[in-house]
Design brief:
This protein is an alpha+beta fold. It has one domain: Beta Barrel (L,D-transpeptidase catalytic domain-like). It has three helices and 15 strands.
């Protein structure tokens, strides 16, 4: 009877944390509800419409990279934050469409909450209607960078690429961006809180 009580308590604790377990994989499918953050009201994500493999979850992950490293698998549309004991927090991502893919090693040079988005000159040339944002688009629910952004630099300086949120939850698992790596807003907030400035980022 005591064992049943303990198990019930553990199940309740996981539920309250927004975490459930499928097999041996802790999943966070219950963590996509509406969120009030810095005065902004992020809407609930209809997560049942997103493939379960792209839900935030802890997975086994064998790597020689140290905990805190971020590994982006653009082919599989996953971002891994390396953890202790051969595990990683895995997030579903959207990646660059054909012609905008990139790969390499960088680091998180800056982290910003509710960042301003400034389209690069090349993007404005392709999409002249974006010229009105040449001085920067104010933060907000419709801002393409979403609730958080991690700015990637390498030896040459700013790569121009970001790990960022997006209001377009249905783009997760697809190749639709102009090269940046996008996550559901609730996921980028989680990653932002876990990842450290200076963290190594490997894009495969």
């Amino acid at each position: 009877m005591r064992i049943k009580t303990v198990l019930a308590a553990l199940a309740l604790s996981a539920s309250l944390a927004g975490c459930s377990t499928i097999g041996t994989t802790p999943m966070f499918s219950n963590s996509y509800g509406a969120v009030t953050d810095a005065g902004y009201s992020l809407p609930r994500i209809p997560i049942d419409k997103v493939q379960k493999k792209y839900h935030r979850q802890v997975v086994r992950y064998d790597t020689k990279e140290k905990p805190g490293t971020i590994v982006v698998d653009t082919g599989e549309k996953f971002l891994y934050l390396v953890m202790e004991d051969g595990k990683a927090m895995r997030y579903g991502i959207g990646v660059g469409r054909e012609g905008f893919e990139w790969r390499g090693t960088a680091r998180v040079a800056m982290k910003r909450e509710w960042p301003t988005w400034t389209p690069p000159a090349q993007m404005i040339k392709r999409q002249p209607e974006l010229a009105k944002y040449a001085g920067g688009m104010e933060p907000g629910l419709n801002n393409p960078l979403g609730a958080r952004a991690l700015y990637l630099f390498n030896k040459g300086g700013d790569t121009g690429y970001r790990l960022h949120g997006t209001p377009e939850w249905n783009s997760i698992g697809k190749a639709m961006s102009s090269g940046c790596i996008r996550l559901i807003n609730q996921d980028i907030i989680d990653l932002y809180n876990r990842a450290e400035s200076g963290a190594k980022v490997i894009v495969l």
